[in-house]
Structures are given as C-alpha cells and as structure tokens.
Amino acid sequence: MARGEIVIIEMNCLGCGYCERFCQRGGIAMTGDKFSAMGFPLPSFVNPDKCNACGNCEAMCPHFAIEVYKYADAGAITAAATPA
Ligand code: SF4
Ligand code: SF4
C-alpha cells in the first residue's frame, strides 16, 4: 500500500536520474518517454505502491525538483471517525 506520493516539479528537473538511483524501493524510474519543456528526460513515479515516503528522492535531487508527501495514518483516521 502506498504510504505517500511524490510530485515532480518539471521546470526544475534536469534529468540527472539521481532520484531513480537513490530510491531503494523502485518507486521512481527514468522511463525515457517523458520530457520537460526544456527537453530534459523526466522521471516517472512507476511504483506508487512501493513508496514508503522516505524522502530520499527529494533529499538527493540537486535541483529541488521533487516534493514528497506522506499520507496521514488512514487507520487512525478511520478509528477516530467510527462511533464506539
Ligand atoms: S534527481 Fe531531480 S533533477 Fe535529477 S532526474 Fe530526479 S527529479 Fe530530475
Ligand atoms: S519517497 Fe522514498 S520510496 Fe518514495 S519514491 Fe522517493 S525515494 Fe522512493
């Protein structure tokens, strides 16, 4: 189950591939089929279900082109909303 998601800020991305290299869960890949307006290859979020929102890709991106958002604990929200 996905624990979060990432947003690629395409105008910042220079296609270096660090995000793919440093994602240890195979969440991101340089698939070679997406390009920015400047012509740089863009990464894709290919395996959202494997993402644990660790933040490595955001931390390793030298161009501030990734933001990672961690989902709130769905279990806790459900429990709080369920009448006793
Ligand atoms: S590390 Fe950043 S600049 Fe490099 S490909 Fe990934 S998103 Fe683009
Ligand atoms: S947050 Fe972590 S697991 Fe998710 S895509 Fe980025 S590096 Fe991979």
How would you describe what is shown here?
The protein has 84 residues and is an alpha+beta fold. It has a single domain, classed as Alpha-Beta Plaits. 21% of the residues lie in helices and 17% in strands. The protein is built from 3 helices and 4 strands, in the order E-H-E-E-H-E-H. It has helices at 18-22, 56-60, 74-81; strands spanning 4-8, 28-29, 44-45, 66-70. The chain has a two-stranded antiparallel sheet. Strands 2-3 form a two-stranded antiparallel sheet. Bound molecules: iron/sulfur cluster (SF4) (2 copies).
Low-pLDDT ranges:
75-82
Q: Tell me about the largest β-sheet.
A: 2 strands, antiparallel
Into which percentage range does the β-strand content fall? Answer: 15-25%
Bound molecules: iron/sulfur cluster
| CATH class term | Alpha Beta
Main features:
single chain, 84 residues, alpha+beta, Alpha-Beta Plaits, 4 strands, binds iron/sulfur cluster
